Amino acid sequence: MRLDKFLKVSRIIKRRTVANEACDAGRVMVNGAVARASYAVKEGDIIEISLGTRQIKIRVKQVNEHATKENAPMMYENAT
Fold it and tell me: What is the pLDDT of residues 31-45, one digit of tens each?
């Protein structure tokens, strides 16, 4: 699954276009390297996001094409 789609489906970022723009601006890193929106997310990846003053660091637990509001938090865990 693409990185921008993962961020939207897991509800870390509300809109895919916002996720795409964050990737283009270099504010999203995967496993310590700046990642493009087309990066293929895999289980075990560490994603770091800088949005304004917020720093988010998560570990991918599962990759699902669709997730309900209740299931979305099960796709990742805090990596801090």
Answer: 999 999 999 999 999
